[in-house]
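Worked example

This section walks through a single chain of length 146. The input is the sequence exactly as stored; nothing has been trimmed or padded.
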Amino acid sequence: MSVTGKRGVGIPLILLHDAEGGIVTVELKNGCIYRGLLDEAQDNMNCTLKDCIKISSEGMESRVEIAYIRGSQVSFIVLPDTLAKAPFFNRIKMWRKFRGHAVYGANTAAIEGGGGRGRGRGTIAITPKTQSQQKRDADAMGKPFT
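Given that input, the structure is written out below as C-alpha cells.
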C-alpha cells in the first residue's frame, strides 16, 4: 500500500480502506444517507454496507440488509473516530520525515544532485578544493598547510 498517490491510492482512500469493519455514514449526491457497517470499499469509492439504515432526502427511514453504493454518487463519508489513532498516520510521519527514502531521507536531493523538481538528469559536479579552501580547512583543524 502506497502513502503517496503516484503509484498507488491516496491518503483518503487508504483511510477508507482502514475503516472497513467500522460503522460509517455515507451521504449521496441525491441527499440519501446510509449508516451501517462498512463491509468493503474499493479504490473508486464503491462501498458495500451491511445492516444499514437508509434515510431518504424526505426523512423516511428504512432498514437495508446490504447496500452497494456507487462511488461516483458519494457526496461525503463520515468515518469512525478511532481512525485518528490509526497506525497509518505513523507511516505518513515517517514518509514525510525521510521524504520517501529510508536511507537518504531529506538529503536525497543533495546526494542525487537535483533540487527535487523537474525532470533533469540530477548530475552533480565534484570539483577539487581550491588552495584557499584547503588552507582554511587546515587552519580550522590546527594543522599546517602543505
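What to look for: The beta strands are 23-28, 33-41, 47-55, 61-69, 74-78.
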